[in-house]
């Protein structure tokens, strides 16, 4: 694990990092979560500089619920934006929360394994104002989804063909 961290390709400037985190916090306002009462916001930064926000959208048929991360990815992808440099995710709890398994796989479809993923505590802004560490947990897609299956695997030769 230590080696992987040393070879991370951090591409985010301090300004973009803060911008993306604040967009994820804003995105939370769009949450429709009457059942869980657990608001989540996500924001993606595309390679061409767009910030795409998403919130969790629940459904009375619980299985129809869509997480914030997937909302953001699907919004972007359906507008033709399919290349990203970072993702930030936040909720209302004062500790970083992490994408669920389904979201990790959907993120994998469009993002590099080395892409930074910022897990943001709800009190990010308050921490900064108080002069504390921002409490953001920085990880990568590869750390969240090791040994993953992705689009390139469908290109592999099949045995016996
Ligand atoms: Zn999810």
UniProtKB/TrEMBL annotation:
Protein name: Cytidine deaminase
GO biological process: nucleobase-containing small molecule metabolic process; pyrimidine-containing compound metabolic process
Keywords carried by this UniProt record: Hydrolase, Metal-binding, Zinc
Signal peptide location: none
Family listed: Belongs to the cytidine and deoxycytidylate deaminase family.
One Gene Ontology cellular component annotation held by this UniProt entry: cytosol
Binding-site list for Zn(2+): 67, 100, 103
Originating species: Neolentinus lepideus HHB14362 ss-1
PROSITE patterns per the UniProt record, alphabetical: CYT_DCMP_DEAMINASES_1, CYT_DCMP_DEAMINASES_2
Broad enzyme group: hydrolase
Cofactor list: Zn(2+)
Top-level taxonomic group: Eukaryota
Listed EC numbers: 3.5.4.5
Alphabetized GO MF terms: cytidine deaminase activity; identical protein binding; zinc ion binding
Record InterPro entries: APOBEC/CMP_deaminase_Zn-bd (IPR016192), CMP_dCMP_dom (IPR002125), Cyt/Deoxycyt_deaminase (IPR050202), Cyt_deam_tetra (IPR006262), Cytidine_deaminase-like (IPR016193)
Residues that, per the record, bind substrate: 56-62
Annotated catalytic residues: 69
Function, as annotated: This enzyme scavenges exogenous and endogenous cytidine and 2'-deoxycytidine for UMP synthesis.
Reaction catalysed by this enzyme: 2'-deoxycytidine + H2O + H(+) = 2'-deoxyuridine + NH4(+); cytidine + H2O + H(+) = uridine + NH4(+)
